[in-house]
Amino acid sequence: MAQFKSAPEMSNELAILQYPDNFGNIPPGTIFMDYTPMLKGLQPVNRAMEIKQSQYERFPAELKAAIAKQVETKAALTTQSPLFATGTGYTGTSGSIPVLLPTVVDPQLYDRTRVEYPLSSGLIPRVAQMGIYADIIRRTLLPTAQWKQEGAALDTSTSTYTRGVVRVRYLYGVGEITGPMMLASRVWQNALSLEQEAQFRAVKELEEDTILDGNPSAGTVDGTVSDENAFIGLVNSITTNNTAQAGARIALDDIRNAFRIIREARGEPDLIVTDYKTLNDIRNLIQEVIRYPSPGDTLDFFGTSVIKFEGVPIVPTIFLPTASAGREMLILTVKKGNNIQMRVMQEPTFQEMPSNADSFKFMVKEYVTMVIAHENWCQRYSGLA
């Protein structure tokens, strides 16, 4: 009676299946089962029998003579000979593969998409979330304390509270690899492993972009992505302290003024996020002012030398707009009072999916949302040069 394997067992076997599991140490291209020689009274080729002699030695004498005449050459073979190539130059995008010259692919993957994700990797603290709603309570006003004379009546005064609710959002990356591709790709790399890693990174990249630009009502700030099922990002959450620069460059006084506004609202700025061009503008301003002993404090962060202004690190990102008169700078209070959090119901997780084809289908899923307790503890400068 046939024994049926569970989906996890099958996926595990698919993940580790390699060429030797099917063919042992037989070189690629070797005939491992062929019964047509029996029509000529010869022994069949069978994998169960170790091949002691070549197929050529099994051929009848007249056939060997015919083959010898066919392969007789009048001149040395070169890489330009028809047996080696068709005459068309072979490149990565055109031409014909040479007949006798194998192509050897570099085993390294040269990935032009690689980038770091500092905000989703922990600069915005990740907080465990239970349930699909993140509920927070804000105290917006303290009670009134009073000076009184001895024996005077004491009036009651209470704090003011508000409630905030943010729904958890669901992010997916879905991939599929056919059975033949999973086996054939192993001469270079494991296609399944490559796609699993790519889907994980696609999920993290979209999360990073949404932390900054997410806008369920109108897409991202640059209008290129529709985020109707996403959470609201920082750019669209900071509304109280939102200053349009109308194409002007950032000035050091702008940053200091933002620090003052945030502190007067009882926040404490501890992180600045902007694009690389605006970061260079700030570097130039600091170098003009502080010439000795150094142009400002720096620290190594995600492989980048990050500058600090008055103790607050400025982290560059490629996920904010880069068009002239459209750049952004976000000055944030993150840690005080756990002001900005990533609420995580489930971290990126791999899961196999059903498939009605000869393929392995899977998804990477993540359930997250972002909570901002006091957006007035942050400052946004938009429309920078």
Compact summary:
The protein has 385 residues and is an alpha+beta fold. 24% of the residues lie in helices and 25% in strands.
Topology of helices and strands:
Layout: H1 7-16, H2 19-23, E1 33-34, E2 45-46, H3 55-58, H4 61-70, H5 119-123, E3 126-128, E4 133-141, E5 160-167, E6 169-178, H6 179-184, H7 191-213, H8 234-237, E7 242-244, H9 252-264, E8 271-274, H10 276-289, E9 297-301, E10 304-309, E11 312-316, E12 327-332, E13 340-353, E14 359-372, E15 379-384
Parallel strand pairs: 3-13, 7-15, 8-11
Antiparallel strand pairs: 1-2, 4-5, 6-14, 8-12, 9-10, 10-11, 12-15, 13-14
* Distance between the first and last residues' Cα: 73 Å
Based on DSSP secondary structure assignment, what is the total number of beta strands? 15
The major β-sheet equals: 7 strands, mixed
- Major sheet strand order: 7-15-12-8-11-10-9
Mean pLDDT: 80
Order of helices and strands: HHEEHHHEEEEHHHEHEHEEEEEEE
Determine the fraction of residues in helical runs and give it as a percent range.
10-25%
Query: Quick one: overall form?
Result: elongated
Q: Helix count, per DSSP?
A: 10
Total of domains = 2
